[in-house]
Structure to design on (148 residues):
């Protein structure tokens, strides 16, 4: 014998339902305010946004005044006489750009070494090894230029 679907009678459904409770309007607004959370970025998203922002900028990474002060100090230490030498503005800019490019190369090499080692955090040893590699590259270039 097949089963037949039993349906409720209309009288039973009305009697079984309880009346709904009405929630006051201000309580509903308070509940919504509690549920709404402050916007948060996922880990790493903000860092990527900052990187993109800095890559679009054309200014120097090291402030110009600080770099000029450092160069002046180095020139005074290197000079045999007591007087400091003067540099043209274009020479200062060229020095700063070259120094920043060298720093960027060392940072990227240290990052590559860190990734190669299977780590996510760059350590001091990575920077030491990266500077050693940079010096070895520079010496190889100097030797190849000297042989020509």
């Amino acid at each position: 014998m097949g089963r037949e679907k039993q349906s409720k009678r209309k009288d039973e459904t009305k009697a079984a339902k309880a009346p709904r409770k009405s929630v006051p309007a201000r309580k509903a607004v308070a509940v919504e305010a509690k549920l709404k959370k402050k916007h948060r970025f996922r880990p790493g998203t903000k860092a990527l946004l900052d990187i993109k922002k800095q890559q679009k900028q054309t200014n120097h990474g090291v402030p110009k005044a600080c770099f000029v002060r450092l160069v002046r100090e180095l020139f005074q230490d290197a000079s045999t006489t007591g007087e400091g030498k003067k540099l043209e503005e274009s020479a200062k800019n060229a020095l700063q750009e070259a120094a920043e490019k060298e720093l960027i190369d060392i940072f990227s090499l240290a990052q590559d070494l860190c990734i190669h080692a299977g780590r996510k955090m760059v350590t001091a040893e990575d920077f030491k090894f990266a500077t050693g590699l940079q010096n070895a590259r520079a010496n190889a270039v100097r030797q190849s230029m000297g042989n020509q």
